[in-house]
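Usage

Read records sequentially. Each one opens with the input sequence:
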Amino acid sequence: MIKTDSTSNLTAAGDIGGTQIRAALVNRDGKILAESVGQTLPERGIQDAATRLSDLIHEVTSQTDGVVGLVVSTAGPINPASGTYDHPPNLTGWHGKTMKPDLERLTGLPVAIGHDATLAALAETRFGPFKGSQNLVYVTISTGIGGGIVANGQMVTGSTGQAGELGHISVRTDSEALSCGVGCHGCFEGNASGPNIGRVARQAARNDPVNAAKLIELAGGEIENIDARLAFQAAEQSDPVAEKVILQVIENVGRGLASILAVLDPDGVIVGGGVVHSLESRWDEVIDAVRTYALPRYQTRGIPVSVTQLGDDVSLIGASVLSFSRFGAS
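and closes with the structure output:
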């Protein structure tokens, strides 16, 4: 078992995404001192994932004299009070289940679980460019799309702990709009997340294989191998079919972020995730798309949207902030 010490300068933190699980040892300054990574493999079940995450936690804390506790950041939807999942689209088979009791038993630590994007927003208010902000939104655009909201200095979790599912706001109503994994037609996640970018690119290549020659070449001649990464890569190499796909992604992202600005009026929106990394070279186009769909006040105020400077570790850092707040000695 791992020793609990509420006065420690260290905490354990975990992160569960659609493809990876991570464990880290983090100090009060948000610095990650040790990290270990594994595959999520959600199809093997939540208990199996809890056991493997626990092994990673033991690994990163093995050289410590104790930590304040463990907070796990995870893709949702999830009720943070119990850690119970509610139809998570990228963690198949985990609905109605929680790993919190297993993690407490396997590590011996006090455990809390939070939505990854909400914890990312918390991290940004503590360590990001909007440090000290009382009103901030974090949006992750990756395997799925989620959001975290800090309003008036407090994490917004909603009546059931599931606030911030910004991936399910509507961005498309046309006949070619896609649905997300839980069936929300035309939503942000369904039309701008990594898997769905790949899905659109594959269909576009089938429809026009001649103009998709570069895209198909990058996929080794197999259209079924086309994914979001290859679509971005082909667009950079002037493949017209891939370029059309990416232009639509930019428009969809612009629509989604403009809607978030209109509804929440934050000091800023911080974005992160794999799709955002792929869009960084075209960020001016993304901002122009946001401006196109944003309320008039943003024409003079500017578009307060920026890419996270905390990188892929933002949710782990947010988990550490919550852990010290909840389990650490004041």
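Summary fields computed downstream for this record:
- Residues 131-308 form a domain with the Nucleotidyltransferase; domain 5 fold (CATH 3.30.420.40).
- The CA atoms of residues 56 and 278 lie 29 Å apart.
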